[in-house]
Every structure is written in C-alpha cells, then in structure tokens.
Amino acid sequence: MRWLRVWWPALVWAACIFSFSTSAFTSENTSRIIVPFLHWLFPRVPQEMLFAIHHLIRKSGHFIEYFIFSLLVLRGMRAGQKHTRLGSALAAIGVAAVYAGLDEFHQSFVPGRTAAFADVLLDTAGGIAAQVVAALVVLLGDLREKRKMKHREH
C-alpha cells in the first residue's frame, strides 16, 4: 500500500488528463463557456480575438496539465528513493511524454477530437519546464542551506 500512497496523486491527475480528452472538452464545448466569459471581461474585443484567446487558453492547459503531471511523477519516483536527481527528472519527462502520446492517440478515437503531434510537444515542454523549476528549487534550497552553515561557522 506504500506504493499507492506515493503514486495516488499522479494516478488521479492522469485520470483527470484522460477525462479532459473526452468529447466533453472539445473546443466547441469549451468555447461555449470560455468565450462568453471572455466577452463579459472584455466587451469591446472582437469575436475573432476572443476565439484566439480561447485557443491560447486551451493550449496553455496542455502545458499546465503536464507541468503538474511531471511534478507528481517525480514525487512518486523520489519518494524514499536514492535515485539521482537527473535520472528521476529525465524519467519523469519520459513518462509525461509517453502519456502525452497515448493521450493524443486516445483523442484520435474520440468524436470531435483530433490527435496532434504539436500537442504532444507542448505537453512534453510542460513536463520539461516542471523539472527545470524543480531543479532550481532544489538548487536554491541547497545554496540557502550552505549559507546557513557558513553563518553558523562564523
């Protein structure tokens, strides 16, 4: 059960990503909610621009979904393990990229959805960005710890 305790967040998030790939989240369906909201926020913006913003929001969702997923996969991999940080980060990116590919493959069978290799690249970019941010957080933490040690010595 320890395995489930460390991996449940990544598994739940993977299920969320899978649900976002259903016909309920087609561009047509999300535009019915997002575009009117954008129009309410920006009443003078032309309709074409609102649809362009809607498109950007949807593509940002790809990046953010896999940013989070990659961090949760890293969390599962690093839980109590002695893996190198780089190895775990690369494995988390690999898992995110493979899942992104499978997700797009799944979408190719969903009515109203299409598979796009560009989305796999965008998803993978989100996973890579997450690992860069995680590495920077660890690096900054290590530097802060070294400074504390120097101040204690003096």
Please give the number of β-strands.
0
Class derived from helix and strand content: mainly alpha
Order of helices and strands: HHHHH
Number of domain modules = 1
Mean pLDDT score: 91
Indicate the radius of gyration in whole angstroms. Answer: 20 Å
The share of residues in extended strands comes to under 5%
What does this structure look like?
- There is one protein chain.
- The protein is mainly alpha-helical.
- The protein has one domain (2-153).
- The protein is 82% helix and 0% strand.
- The longest helix is centred in the C-terminal third of the chain and has 37 residues, at 117-153.
- The termini are far apart.
- The relative contact order is 0.12.
- The mean pLDDT is 91.
SSE layout and pairings?
Elements: H1 2-20, H2 27-41, H3 47-78, H4 85-107, H5 117-153
Helix pairs in contact: 1-3, 2-3, 3-4, 3-5, 4-5
What are the salient characteristics of this protein?
154 residues, mainly alpha, 5 helices, globular
In short:
This protein has helices at residues 2-20, 27-41, 47-78, 85-107, 117-153. The protein has 154 residues and is mainly α.
